[in-house]
Amino acid sequence: MRILVRGGLVVTAAEEMYADVLVEGERIAAVASPETAEGWLRGVDRVVDATGKYVVPGGVDVHTHMEMPFGGTVASDTFETGTRAAAFGGTTTIVDFAIQKVGGSLREGLDAWHAKADGKCAVDYGFHMILADVNDATLKEMDGLVGEGVTSFKMFMAYPGVLYSDDGQILRAMQQAAHNGALPMMHAENGIAIDVLIAQALAEGRTDPRVHGEVRKALLEAEATHRAIQLARVAGSPLYVVHVSAAEAVAEITQARDLGLDVFGETCPQYLFLSTDDLARPDFEGAKYVCSTPLRPAEHQAALWRGLRGNDLSVVSTDHCPFCFTGQKDLGRDDFSKIPNGLPGVENRMDLLHQAVVDGHISRRRWIELACAAPARMFGMYPRKGTIAPGADADLLVYDPAAKHTLSAATHHMNVDYSAYEGREVTGRADLVMSRGQAIVEGGRYFGRPGDGRYVERATCQYLNGS
């Protein structure tokens, strides 16, 4: 189909302009002034009136965990339900995490995640690879996966005995990444020290969800962030630090970037809009807010917003990893360390970040940069994803900046029995969501099908060496 989106304010990371967007098939064919676009009217199959609305790129969420096993259970969103919810929220591309099992190969882990996602997804998707067992065979496999478009590898300084890698393993993987062009991603918390504090808290009878935040101390996030940066410097590799939550960790990243290092930070909406007050909710309600890194006291939020404005934090992703309150989160009712770690949020990110525009934290263009363009560039998908330009995939939102709605489990589409933002009113919502030229959500109704989403082979990070 040929579709003309008329009358809207086109907002990208680079510019804002009143322009019309011509879509031919799955791609954007042209962006032009309304006067120029007049000549296209007779040759189009559909005209979309975007008067009074923004026309923005579809969101790119590069940190999700659909169907992730954790703590004896599995994240409640499947690739089908989770990507449909993403579409309702204006996100048209996700990058999820395939997991290598200890003792297994990267190939086995990647194949398992392809099997979960193939033919199920509502929006386009890619994969990062979690390295859980760094060894000679794993390091060789990394090169092959980069050639297949899996160009980022995540390691954990947390969760000893499960996903943890020691400094030697991390260094070897970073050295391999320096060789093959991959981007190492790091969950930066000192898990060895945290486990000591967990055991001490439980021995003292401190079992409530709020203790999760007390033992996963901000200083232990900052220490691990510092250590990861130094290991990357030794290896000569870049570094992407996931879900940064603490002001002290932001300071470590800021210092590295001031030195001109290829170090990048990501934060998530939960750290910008929620706090330890939520973890401390009574009657075990705080369990809904258990995630790692943990929610911090509200005073940390100023440093996160400052980091986002100044580009010391480059991306906002969700770390979407939902577990139902009943039947999953309550596995840790008598022991906070057994509460599955993760929050739902893939449906809420675009609207929460637009609320940040309304509240004056960031500009409109920075909203699109953080949510669309920067994640696409960071993980090798730009300009196919993350912008509005001729030749780009026609992933478009017609976004109503004045629409007010209330976030609630009663109305969201994520397969989880609570909302982390229950009752919060936000301003802004997508009227129309297009994925590669197809209207998959319009007027609050879903018109897509499982399998509409395609796997995206990614290039390497586009921010390295000043590029």
- CA radius of gyration is 21 Å
What percentage of the residues does DSSP assign to strands (E)?
15-25%
Shape estimate: globular
Amino-to-carboxy terminus distance: 35 Å
Biggest sheet, open or closed, and with what strands and sense? 8 strands, parallel
- The largest beta-sheet arranges its strands as 8-11-12-13-14-15-16-17
Tell me roughly what share of residues is in helical segments.
25-40%
Uncertain segments of ≥5 residues (pLDDT<50)?
Answer: none
**What's the average pLDDT?**
97
Number of helices: 14
Structural class by sheet pairing and helices: alpha/beta
Beta strands, count? 21
Question: What does this protein look like?
Answer:
This protein has 467 residues and is of the alpha/beta class. The protein has 14 helices and 21 strands. It has an 8-stranded parallel beta sheet. Strands 3-2-7-18-19-20-21 form a 7-stranded mixed beta sheet. Strands 5-4-1-6 form a 4-stranded mixed beta sheet. Strand 12, helix 4 and strand 13 (152-156) form a beta-alpha-beta unit. The longest helix has 18 residues, at 218-235. The radius of gyration is 21 Å and the shape is globular.
Task: Based on the model shown, name its key terms.
22% strand, single chain, alpha/beta, 7-stranded mixed beta sheet, 21 strands, 467 residues, 8-stranded parallel beta sheet
List the helices and strands and how they pair.
Layout lengths: L1 E5 L2 E3 L4 E3 L1 E5 L2 E6 L1 H4 L8 E4 L4 E4 L1 E6 L4 E2 L2 E2 L4 H10 L2 E9 L6 H12 L6 E7 L5 H12 L4 E5 L10 H14 L2 E5 L3 H13 L6 H6 L2 H18 L3 E3 L5 H12 L4 E5 L1 H5 L2 H4 L21 H10 L4 E2 L32 H10 L5 H15 L17 E11 L18 E11 L2 E5 L2 E2 L21
Helix pairs in contact: 4-5, 5-8, 8-9
